[in-house]
């Protein structure tokens, strides 16, 4: 991450020596108007304060403790002529990172500051890493049986060492961020931060600040300065998920940042040089968005120097059961359900046959739910959702597994189409019964829009009127 240092030093010659030493160490030195008064420090964003005992409000020990207690926990380096060992010890006990003599030579000062800043940088990056998801993604974590996924992982291994922009394409839930984290962790930036931002999850008014940061007073409500994702990712990787949701005016600013490797905080005229690898991802057809002029062509080319496409789970069925076993083992330990040893043959067949529209993310949720509900040593069909277990299809087909025996005599594509149609019919029939024919409520429960539900009902010959309890002679109770 980019280290920001404040110099509260009255002596001009000492301040100049400190500034030069810090700049040699790739530290951003805040000077001039960027340096707040002491009372304004709680509203500023900085990592390191270098000051002298004469600049510290009395008592100095309380002042140091106050700085250390700020939300970002900045470090304090005190320069003093004091030779009293007890006085120096009190400053260190109050939380000062170090107490230095202002008379140090430039080379000695630079070497000493270099050690202190390297230690601080390791600490801050370590804190950021600890805030990530438990465990670190690695390409070797997943040994795929699918030719498509194996080819993807082989290509990913080739781009690990590169520092070029990476573009990851795939449906929602396939693991685009997982792949980005794995490539980051195994590359030369692996010891640096990995910062993820989803432009689609933030209001446009907040997204610019989230990416580039802001100064105090930059807009209404900006009561303190804030560093953005680019600064936090300095020395590491910035991952922009669902990049297709980026508003047009921010696409321009993002393009400038990628080209110039520099950013400006909101409310600031200072240009900050940043060192990040950009990885971005989307489930959209961004090439089509470029043709429709909703996404900038120049930005698209900048971000997609190398493109990786993650196949959906339905196209790599060889991986379904190994993934099920992996997450069964994970959740039986995590949820303290060690008696759950695996899944029954019927459950495994149902899991393998399911189309997994939500991909790996859906599989993880299904397995966690199954382990929670399991009463015995094996996950059975009873612990699986109806759309996976086939109970809905069985009910729609008359409740007897023998009714489906002819499906095995049909070509796979035809049998699969019939299974899906029977499932949809049974699912929508019960959904309309439960909602008493109210299509809006049924669509909400199904998680689809009304237009899609109406289209499915029309195709399957279903009418909402059949399920209304308020129609004349209505007999359904829902």
Overview of this protein structure:
It is a single chain. By secondary structure, the protein is an alpha/beta fold. It folds into 4 domains: 127 residues, Rossmann fold, CATH 3.40.50; 173 residues, Rossmann fold, CATH 3.40.50; 76 residues, Helicase, Ruva Protein, domain 3 (Orthogonal Bundle), CATH 1.10.8.60; 62 residues, Arc Repressor Mutant, subunit A, CATH 1.10.10. The chain is built from 19 helices and 14 strands. A hairpin with an 8-residue loop joins strand 9 and strand 10. Helix 9 crosses helix 11, helix 12 crosses helix 14 and helix 18 crosses helix 19. The longest helix has 25 residues.
State the main characteristics.
478 residues; alpha/beta; Rossmann fold; Helicase, Ruva Protein, domain 3; five-stranded parallel β-sheet; 19 helices; 14 strands; 44% helix
Number of helices: 19
Q: CATH architecture of the largest domain, please?
A: 3-Layer(aba) Sandwich
Roughly how many Å is the radius of gyration? 30 Å
Helix fraction, binned, reads 40-55%
Total discrete domains: 4
Query: Regarding quaternary structure, how should these chains be classified?
Result: single chain
What is CATH's topology name of the largest domain?
Rossmann fold
Q: Low-confidence segments, ≥5 residues, pLDDT <50?
A: 395-403, 471-478
Strand order of the largest sheet: 2-1-3-4-5
Mean pLDDT across all amino acids? 82
CATH superfamily of the largest domain: P-loop containing nucleotide triphosphate hydrolases
Backbone shape: elongated
The N- to C-terminal Cα distance equals 58 Å
């Amino acid at each position: 991450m980019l280290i920001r240092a404040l110099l509260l030093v009255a002596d001009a010659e000492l301040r100049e020596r400190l500034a030069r030493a810090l700049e040699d160490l790739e530290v951003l030195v805040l000077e001039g108007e960027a340096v707040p008064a002491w009372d304004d420090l709680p509203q500023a964003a900085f990592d390191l304060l270098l000051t002298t005992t004469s600049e510290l409000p009395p008592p100095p020990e309380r002042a140091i403790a106050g700085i250390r207690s700020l939300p970002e926990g900045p470090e304090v380096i005190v320069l003093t002529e004091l030779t009293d060992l007890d006085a120096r010890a009190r400053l260190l006990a109050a939380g000062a990172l170090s107490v230095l003599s202002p008379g140090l030579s430039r080379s000695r000062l630079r070497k000493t500051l270099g050690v202190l800043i390297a230690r601080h940088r390791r600490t801050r990056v370590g804190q950021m890493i600890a805030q990530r998801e438990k465990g670190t993604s690695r390409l070797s974590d997943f040994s795929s049986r699918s030719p498509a996924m194996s080819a993807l992982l082989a290509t990913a291994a080739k781009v690990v060492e590169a520092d070029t922009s990476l573009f990851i394409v795939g449906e929602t839930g396939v693991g685009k961020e997982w792949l980005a984290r794995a490539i980051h962790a195994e590359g030369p930036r692996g010891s640096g931060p990995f910062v993820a931002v989803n432009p689609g999850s933030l209001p446009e008014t907040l997204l610019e600040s989230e990416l580039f940061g802001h100064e105090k007073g930059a807009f209404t409500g900006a009561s303190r300065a804030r560093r953005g994702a680019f600064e936090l990712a300095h020395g590491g990787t910035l991952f922009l998920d669902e990049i297709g949701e980026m508003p047009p005016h921010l696409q321009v600013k993002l393009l400038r940042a990628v080209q110039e490797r520099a950013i400006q905080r909101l409310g600031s005229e200072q240009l900050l040089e940043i060192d990040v690898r950009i990885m971005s991802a989307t489930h959209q057809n961004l090439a089509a968005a470029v043709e429709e002029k909703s996404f900038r062509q120049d930005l698209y080319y900048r971000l997609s120097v190398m493109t990786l496409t993650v196949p959906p789970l339905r196209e790599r069925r060889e991986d379904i059961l190994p993934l099920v076993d992996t997450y069964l083992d994970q959740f039986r330990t995590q949820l303290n359900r060690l008696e759950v040893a695996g899944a029954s043959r019927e459950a495994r067949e149902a899991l393998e046959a399911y189309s997994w529209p939500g991909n790996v993310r859906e599989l993880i949720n299904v397995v966690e739910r199954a382990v929670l509900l399991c009463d015995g040593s094996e996950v059975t069909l009873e612990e699986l959702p109806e759309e996976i277990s086939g109970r809905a299809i069985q009910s729609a087909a008359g409740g007897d597994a023998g009714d489906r025996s002819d499906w095995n005599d049909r070509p796979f594509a035809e049998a699969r189409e019939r299974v899906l149609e029977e499932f949809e019919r049974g699912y929508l029939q019960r959904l309309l019964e439960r909602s008493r024919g109210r299509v809006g409520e049924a669509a909400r429960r199904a998680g689809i829009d009304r237009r899609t539900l109406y289209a499915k009902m029309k195709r399957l010959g279903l009418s909402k009127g059949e399920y209304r309890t308020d129609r004349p002679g209505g007999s359904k109770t829902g």
